[in-house]
Design goal:
22% helix, alpha+beta, four-stranded antiparallel β-sheet
Length: 179
């Protein structure tokens, strides 16, 4: 890869030359690189899964960017050489992470994080038989990471199921068994 400076010939040229070189512009710089060819190896199962996940993330990103507010949000997160689409794909590719679930008195406190933003957290309380006792949305704390849910009762032998969802709709679920 070569960065081109002050070359009159290449200032207006973009694309592939003679199936050997590709010339493109990124972040205001002209770049000339060897043209990549197709791989002669068959893709592995893991590669095929990653490609499929990227296709889904790309489709979600396009849908997300139709909302002008989300487009402005993702654009604000973009660094040099990046745009709102790049950030939306990155967000759609990764699910939020539930780092911790704590029980304090009558509250369930969920610590959930995402590189961009966790949109919502839902808490479900099940009894020992697996029957749902209650469910509802948690409220975001001032620190922007913890989510609080006030629970009516915690049944012995039951469990708490927490679902964290990010802006593209990716969800992560975590279960805590009550003793």
């Amino acid at each position: 890869m070569a960065l081109v400076h002050d070359n009159m010939l290449l200032q207006l040229v973009r694309g592939t030359l003679g199936r050997q070189f590709t010339i493109y512009e990124r972040n205001g710089q002209i770049i000339m690189a060897k043209k990549r060819g197709k791989s002669k190896k068959k893709p592995t199962k893991k590669q095929l899964e990653a490609r499929y996940k990227m296709q889904i993330a790309s489709a979600l990103a396009v849908a997300l960017l139709e909302d002008p507010e989300l487009k402005a949000y993702y654009k604000s997160k973009a660094g040099p050489g990046q745009n709102a689409y790049n950030m939306a794909v990155k967000d759609a590719y990764h699910s939020p992470e539930i780092q911790q679930i704590r029980l304090e008195e009558e509250s369930v406190i969920v610590t959930a994080a995402n590189e961009f933003r966790v949109a919502e957290v839902e808490v479900r309380v099940l009894d020992a038989a697996g029957k749902m006792q209650e469910r509802g949305p948690a409220v975001l704390a001032r620190n922007g990471v913890d989510w609080y849910y006030k629970v009516n009762s915690l049944p012995a032998g039951g469990k708490i199921i927490v679902l964290a969802v990010d802006l593209p709709g990716n969800g992560t679920e975590k279960v805590v068994k009550l003793e």
